[in-house]
Every structure is written in structure tokens, then in C-alpha cells.
Amino acid sequence: MTRRRSLPLPIIATALLAVARPTAARPLARRVAPDSLTTAYDVSGLRVIHRVRPTDDVVAVRLYLLGGSRQLSERTAGIEALLLEASEYGTALFPGREARRRIARSGAVVTLEPEADWTVFGFTALAEDLDSVWLAFADRVVHPVLSAEAVAEARGKLLARARRRYTQPDLRLRALALRSLFPDHPYSLDPSGTPASLMTLTVEDLRAYLQGQIVTSRMLLVVVGNVTRARVESLVAATLGRLPRGDYHWTLPAPPERRNPQWLIEHRPTTATTYLLGLFAGPPPTSSDYWGFRVATQLLSSELHYAIRTERSLSYAAYAPFLDRALPVGGAYVSTPKPDLAFPIIQRQIEQLKSEPVSVFAMAQFVDDFKVDYVAENATAAGQADLLARGELYLGSYRKAEDFVSRLNSVGPTSIWLVATRYLTAIQYAFLGDTARMHGHW
Questions:
Q1: Any idea what the Cα angle at residue 426 is, between residues 176 and 355, rounded to 5°?
Q2: Rounded CA gap, 240 and 227, in Å?
Q3: How far apart are CA 45 and CA 410, in angstroms?
Q4: For the whole prediction, is pTM greater than 0.85?
């Protein structure tokens, strides 16, 4: 008889409690009304997705500069991050730190996130402060002064982060493993920059990039909050809409060549804790396997935490990271003084996903809980802006953003088994610590 694999005891207990509650019954399917509060339009060649939230006083503005690591080379890694960071220290309308002070006085929160597929630059503010904050924000994109002093100050901030990223064990491990997972692929480049690339970028490099690459065809603007279309169009037309159109065309990145991974080992004999990370590439969001892969990674995370930390107390941190990209990445991570005991558990949990089906009952409850958490994460204005952008860029239309949730309903034990056998195979492992602690368990 085939043994039916079940989930860790805490998850099963949650599932049993859910059955005991009469309210846990699944509601009947009903037709969802069309989204009449979200529209898309162009303003002077710039694509805008706009969701009106009449009862929300907070407005989230997110500008996506498309391309991400595909815009870069080894020498120019981090150039977009450096350009936008330097713009904080002087623009045509706001010399020195005036743009920064103007935004700070309103209480708005600025976001700058260089990512593999794009750079997100934006802010979250009260609707009543939108015009004032927008003017400073947009001038940072359109008219940064990029003085030598501004670039030097921004460079110092980014260098400090980059040095931490390549020296702090957890961050270094991830950076090295990602680079090895995507050899000869743009994803191997660091969009935030390396210490070497950030040191060599010049003011002239930034000005050339501003002139050639800051164009509206590379931009997607997402606005979520209590603001009218007329107001958005007016703000964009007077600022970002005056940028050159350019001829950029967004496409999804090509998948990497499939190669046999190798161990990356950094021997540190004096380190008491060892850090171990395995990464594996998954299917794009356009694939029917995407949500199975995402749920399988979350399931692996839960089981690693239970088996390594809760059950055996081998680690304070054992989980499966997930990087949401056009080419998503899952993994298995543990920091532990006993890697020789933890690593076989990681291998065993991955093999169980491939060979032992999860029970239908426990799987349904796990997916329901995952769905609730996912919806909660995207409930804010900023979360909805991100969801709309991913629908537009990954699936071809912001109207398909809700597919990210509805497609969860199709994930079951068979989906988990399929994605585990397809994607949790070529795993790139990285190890940082005293190799003697492995006792040959590679």
C-alpha cells in the first residue's frame, strides 16, 4: 500500500480545527463583477495603470523602469540605482536636499528597489499631499543635477550596502548562489551593484544613461488610491510626459540554459555557525506550473522549519526562500552548527515532495491558508500596485492580476508532485563555514 504523505502536525491541527468550525465550509462559486475602478491609459507615451480607492486616503505611486538586470553589464551593474539615489541630492527645481526635505515634511515614504526585472521607484503619501510630493519625485526622474558631490554621497550609501551584501554570510551566500544558478544570463548581474562596479561608475556614465535610457517607453506607472484620472493625467503630462519616448519594448527574459550545478564552498574554519543554501529555478508566471511551484516552495519551507528547527532544534532559521521574478527561484536554507545533520534532512524533504503525495485534505487547507496570507499581503495600496504591475508585465494585462489568486484553486497534490519532479532537481548549493563540520555529507 502506498503511504499517503501528510503535512507537519501544526498544519494538520489547523486543518482539523477548520473542519470543526461550520464557517469553514467553502462558499459556492459566484461570478465576480468586472473591475470598474481600474483603468489603463497612456499619457504622452507613458503607460499608466490607475486603480481608484475612494475610501482610502493613502495613495501609492510606483514607477517601474523596465529591464532590470538586462539593462546592465558587469561594469554598469547598479547604474540605475546610483542615478536615482543621487537624484535625492539635487534636481533642477529642488537644489541640494530640498527635494528630500519636501517629501519628508509630508510624511511620504519613498521606495527605491532595484530588481532583476525592473527598478521600482515610487512613494506612498496622503492623497492631500500628492501634488507636492509628486513634483519632487518626478523632478528626481526628469531633472537630476548629478553633481559630483551628489554622486559621491549616493555612491557611499550604495557601497556600504553592497559591501554588507557581499560580506554578511546570509546575503553573500545568496548573491553567490544566484550568480552560479544563472551563468551567462542577465540574472547573474546584481541590479543594486557590486563594490567593484559602483566604484568605477562615473558622473558621465550616469548622465549618458539618463539621456539614453530614462525614456517613457521603458516606464510603467501604477497609481492606487483616492485620486482622479484627470489629476493623474495632469501631473504626468507636466513632468514625466515630457521625457523622450524612446523605442524600448518589454519582453519576458529568456530562460537560462540548463546546466549541472556545482557546490560553491567558502571555507571559514573559525566560524561557529555554517550557512547552507540550495537554489532552483522555476517556471515563469505564464506557465500552468507557476502556482504549483510557488505552493510547493512554501510547503517545503513549512516542512524544513518543522523538521529542522521545531522537531530537532538544529537551527534558528530553516526555510525555503522564494524570489518572485519572471523566472522565479525557490530554495532551501539553513544556518546551523551541525550541517552534517541538517543537510540530509533538506535532501529527504525535497525527495519526499517528489515521491510521496500530500493528502488531499491537508493540501486543500494549506492552499486556503496560503491564499488568505497572499490576499492580506496585497491588500494595501502599495501591494495592489505591485500586483497590478505583475499582472501587466508577467501575464500581459493588469486585468489578469486576479489570476494570481484564482489559479491557486487548481493546485493539488498532483501539481506539487509534478513541479517537484520537474524543477526541484538541478539545485545549486552554496556553503559558507567550517567544511569539517559536514563530515563528508556533501
A1: 135
A2: 18
A3: 38
A4: yes
